[in-house]
Amino acid sequence: MPSEARPESLTGLHTFPRLLLNHARSRPDAPAMREKYLGIWQTLSWAEVAVRVRALACGLAELGFRRGDNLAIIGDNRPHLYMMMSAAQALGGVPVPLYQDAVANEMLFVMQDAGICFAVVEDQEQVDKLLEIMPQVGTLEHIIYDDARGMRHYTQPFLHDIQELIEMGRIHDRNHPDVFDNEVSKGHHDDVSVMLYTSGTTGKPKGVCQTHAAFISAAQGGVQVDRMSGDGDILSYLPMAWVGDHLFSYAQALVAGFTINCPESAETVMTDLREIGPTYYFAPPRVFESLLTSVMIRMEDAGKVKQKLFHYFMGVAKRCGGAILDGKPVGVSDRLMYWLGNVLIYGPLRNVLGMSRIRVAYTAGAAIGPELFGFFRSIGINLKQLYGQTETCAYVCLQPDGQVKSDTVGAPAPSVEIRIADNGEVLVKGPMLLKGYYKRPDATAESINAEGYFMTGDAGFLDADGHLKIIDRAKDVGKLSSGAMFAPNYIENKLKFFQHIKEVVCFGHERDMVCAFINIDVGAVGNWAERRGIAYSGYTDLAGKPEVLDLIRECVEKINADLVHDAMVADSQIHRFLVLHKELDPDDDELTRTRKVRRNFVAEKYGVLIDALYGGKSSQFIETEVKFEEGRRGKVSADLKIIDVKTFPVVKKAA
């Protein structure tokens, strides 16, 4: 056996490098990773990955990377970037993935806070960002790049092609054949395996230090619940800096041994999804919303016969599809019609979506509408919800087969304890909890109570079946001036279930009524407008069309009618709204990179609009500076119409 793959000296599988070497020894020829390059899928076996990780680790050691050093990882999902995580861990270092779409100044805080000494990046674009901020990051010594295109004229001695690093590592390994195995053998389950930074919705991001034991425990729980095996596939397309990707595409892949598939680019994800046909799939609700919107738009373009067939069989699926998926008893005639619908509609539709082989699909990060959730389950896609945070390895609740509900995030996952505090906050305990916030013992102490429970910051309750239902962020739950509860996220999510609405921000704490900012979905609303012969020149023009405002008003009034039946939030009906003249954007600091609204920032930035909503105005002019991807700045202005909405009387139940 070559020196690059000698796992005999290792005992136990309690770190990720040991898991990797175990797969390389026990199933060396099984596919570990695939990458689509120039239109062709390239496959790497577990043995090949182990050999390459060994070379990368030895190359890092040759450059001076040592135990305890932090390695930044920046780029789209690429096999070499995942391998560099393992290489850093093998030497006792800590990978620190950053969001690849962040601009240089956004990366600066993390680079400084984490004291990054080495960085591995995808391509020239990311190299340029680091060169821009390098003078302000005194610890940064070496930058390694994966894609050499455009790098020919970069002559700085601290820049290294990853292929050169591999060759350097092979030479180092020949000269020091015991270094790699010795470093891996020193690895302990309680060592920090990764540092993931929080989104920073209310302040500066914090580095969450998670151990090998925490992520391996979380991965093992998920693998156990959903019976994952080494013959599966996942398409890894979500940001590597996001805790979900680290759990699904790294930790669970190393525990179960399934194959990580990296798409060619962000633009080819849907094509690559259809080609790979993953068995395991994860996407936030907005991706499933986008998929359903595209399906409905295509159906509007179809002929009358196809439309009738689609709507008829979708009625059948809605009636019995979910029950069939859950293995519940269904009448013979319904089963027969569902079988026929599967041949004519559901099967081809799953194939178009790239979900023909899905065994389990998960969504998390935000609430998903019951109709959207039901649609995918009704056509035979085993879609479930999960719940977790960066501080819990994205692992708190799971939905076992046969216990799937659209209005809960599932039951406590294996080894997880959940308690609801007196103020309604969800508290969790288990082996998946963070070791601490990097250089922030104060924040660590504030996040874990005296009994060892992590305080999630979410408000919720356990239903009669022991499933957790999330209401809102605890800090965002307020009261109207009448004393009634105001849960903005709960209302916002209900509105975002409509395909024409992309984002919502509600206001009402300590006020006499609820008002809202709304972003339209330009794709869905644009298609709706074109079918009605409504011409428009762009987002701002479309958002201000009277017909569009009427469309959104109808959506809001439907939600108001629905809220009346929920005693907890019946008083939180929306009285007035406006459609913003621009989309809320991470580049304008209105959203985090995980697309969470920076609520306080938005309220301050658009204070004049909030004043207009509550001041009884019928319109308000605003001019806003925007930042384009290439760094240019410009201004968007509009005279926004403020729409009054029909509300419904709250029926008080008799005592």
Automatic annotation (TrEMBL):
InterPro entries registered for this protein in UniProt: AMP-binding_CS, AMP-dep_synth/lig_dom, ANL_N_sf
Full protein name: AMP-binding protein
MF GO annotations: ATP binding; long-chain fatty acid-CoA ligase activity
Keywords: ATP-binding, Nucleotide-binding
CC per GO annotation: membrane
Keyword Nucleotide-binding: yes
Short name of any one Pfam family annotated for the protein: AMP-binding
Presence of the UniProt keyword Transmembrane in the record: no
Domain AMP-dependent synthetase/ligase span(s) in chain numbering: 23-438
PROSITE patterns (UniProt xref): AMP_BINDING
